Amino acid sequence: MSNTTFTNVAGFQVSSPVNQDNMVDYMIEFEMGELDGERTIQLFQYLIDTGLAWKLQGSYAHIAKELIGQGYCYQALDLDRHGTYIEAEPHDVEEWNQPLLSNGV
């Protein structure tokens, strides 16, 4: 899947496989429990970057906060002037806390 570049809420250019054309498909797969860890993180990073994570109903904001707290996603303002995540460290997606999603919390 190719990445799309867009301007996040902090005014930085970011690249993501999730975009406004396929976001709903990602969300439907998420709601049905069909997204793997990597694609879930991609979805939530997109929702954070666009500010939608804080506007959507349900548990989206809670899960976004959990992913930020665990270091899998970053707040839109956590970018340097080149659009690189300041605190970016590689994470093993397989170690991500899957029960958070399966419980719908």
Characterise the protein shown here:
The protein has 105 residues and is mainly α. It has helices spanning 23-31, 37-50, 60-69, 99-102, and strands at residues 4-7, 13-16. It has a two-stranded antiparallel sheet. Residues 87-105 have low confidence and may be disordered.
Sequence-ordered SSE layout with sheet pairings:
Elements: E1 4-7, E2 13-16, H1 23-31, H2 37-50, H3 60-69, H4 99-102
Antiparallel strand pairs: 1-2
> Strand tally, please?
2
Structural class: mainly alpha
Major beta sheet summary: 2 strands, antiparallel
Return residue spans where pLDDT drops below 50 for at least 5 consecutive residues.
Answer: 87-105
Number of helices: 4
Q: Strand order, main sheet: write it out.
A: 1-2
**How would you describe the shape?**
globular
Q: From the alpha-carbon coordinates, what is the Rg to the nearest angstrom?
A: 13 Å
The ordered string of helix (H) and strand (E) elements is EEHHHH
Our estimate of the beta-strand percent is 5-15%
Separation of termini?
A: 29 Å
Oligomeric state, counting identical vs distinct chains: single chain
Query: What average pLDDT do the residues reach?
Result: 75
Fraction of residues in helix = 25-40%
Domains counted in the coordinates: how many?
1
